[in-house]
Amino acid sequence: MISTFSKRVAVVALVGWLGVVPPASLITHTAGVASAATAQLTVTKQAFTVLGDSVWRVVVALEAAPSENLNLDVVSHRRLKNRAELADVTSGRLPDILDRVRFGIADLPRNPAGRLVVSVPTATDTSTPRDLLFGSSGVYPITLELRAGEELLTSTFTFVHRLEPGGTASAGMEGTLQVMNVAAVSSAPARTAKGGNMVAPEFSAQLADLVETYDKETSGAFVSLQADQAAVSGPTALAALRNESSRHTFAASTFVPLNAGAMAAVGMGEAFASQMRAGEDAIAAAIDVNPDRGVILVDDKLNADGAVLLRDVGVRGTVLTPRAIDASGFRGLVDSALTYRARASDGSVLLVQGIDSVYAGQLADSTQSPLARAITVAAGLVLHRESLLGMGKDLTLVMVALGTKDGRPADPAVLQQLFRLVESSLVLKIASAPRPAATETTGDVLDLATGTDTTLERTKTLVDALTPRVNNTISMLGDDDPRRDDWPAMLATMFSSRTDPALEAALEKNLRAATRAVLGSLGLPPAANFTLSSRKAELRLQVRNSSDSALRAVVRFRSAKLKFAKPRQVVEVPANASAEVVMAVEARSSGRFPVTVQLLTPRGDLSLGEPVTITANVSAIAGLGQVVTATALLILLTWWAHNWRSRRRRAIEAAFAMADHPSRSRDKAPPAASN
User: Fold this and answer.
1) Is the pTM above the cut of 0.70?
2) What is the pLDDT of residue 642?
3) Of the CATH numbers 3.40.50.20, 2.60.40.1180, 1.10.10.10, 3.20.110.20, which one belongs to the domain with range 177-447?
């Protein structure tokens, strides 16, 4: 390990010197209004790491009125002990002066751009007129003062990390602090008035910043892509990110940004899980990389119920933005290099790591140049490393989460400067494979809030009222109709933690109007009469469609006197046209009687208007009169035959009875037969 560090030491000064070239300034202080108007001192390039008694080089842009007695004083201050003292310096409270070296402006060489090139010899423990004194290894503030004689015209300050000659080996043995850049490419949901998804300009700008940052880098970031935006960005917009995808770790996310705690409070756990799957599918399709659900980025309040929901969908760790840290009540409790346990309401544990709010503020400080911001962050990281070592932490297990307040990509110019500074450092390293919140690195447990998040209660009531109407209307649409996807997405967007009240109101209004238009597009002809001339026949009916898209509906027939082959029939009606419904019927009797016809949605049987009553006229069913007549005649003949047989039988019985009567003589001969 010492051999490797020896090689690194040989090149570190050159790398640090050549790698930082921004055309901007560090913090500048002026002695007064008049001086500020006539003099300005700007650091445009510097080395960050100073090894032993080596020469520290800095390039300075000077704007000042010509003068023969202009001097540049380079002043070293007492070594900083911690990040709190670093914050004091950036607030203008400099520590005690250690040493001062003066250079005549006229004696300093200039580069081709006309800027002053200052080479400052350094020394340890012993002060000489030409060497700038430092003490032991650590971070030192340096002040550059422009003076006319002894009068201070203006000044600026910066930081250097000095390592003693013997400190390089010990630095290598103690290890390097890994730095992980966190970038959430996101925006508010960008829905059109009709519910279509479009690319938000801020998403495109952030995507460009992320790609630019890593255009010439070999390291990567922990990236969270907003899925609904990635889905519509298109292959061209995402091509550069796909080319860099092997460097980054991509986190899973819900399709639209959702607050897990708020969703859990209104019983929308299944919807959250569905949105998580949809988000993963969208990201995978957009960049050809499967995002990791194990650790996700959270930019909302994390509470106990939200932790349970995240665990239920397979999340094991979270990276909280500074905004989420504040909302969750963890300000001052989270070290961005460490991973904590957060206990969910069911007793399970979620790992939590946070982005440092101080670094976030320094990265975003637009009053300072990219170089100034990068150097301040680098100085803080060195001090952060010293703090972790003081706590006895194993640096191989920790990784600083670096990012902005809301996680969005930092200024590429700042990050590129920071990467150069870190590459020139012996004690810092950009993580090549960012893996946040992977392993618990502290025994501290974060107490998650247990109260119910009520922010979505009104939205839940509203969506519950809209959902049946939306689902029923969707069942009328064609299979390829984009509204099948747009309308459910509009409902989901209403739950998003990034949806403002104005957008929610617009989505509700448009959903009601759009579904009402579809539901009112189909109609039946007015009431009419029809005649059936046979027992079995076909009933024909026209359904009209006044919309610009094909629609489906169920036509339902009801009648007490007719038997329908299919009482419910699905019909698809072309746009701005009519379709004929043919229904096979069978009459049960003749006469005049009503038939009710109604249009319904294919799903849910939502009525598409008032039923229409038509009159069926069955005046003569073929064969029915003959059947009735024949039956009556048969009954009559049967009655007559039965009656005739009864009379004949009675007559015969009467005749036999007379012949056997006793009053008649037994020997009386019957009359003779006539010839």
Assistant:
1) yes
2) 56
3) 3.20.110.20
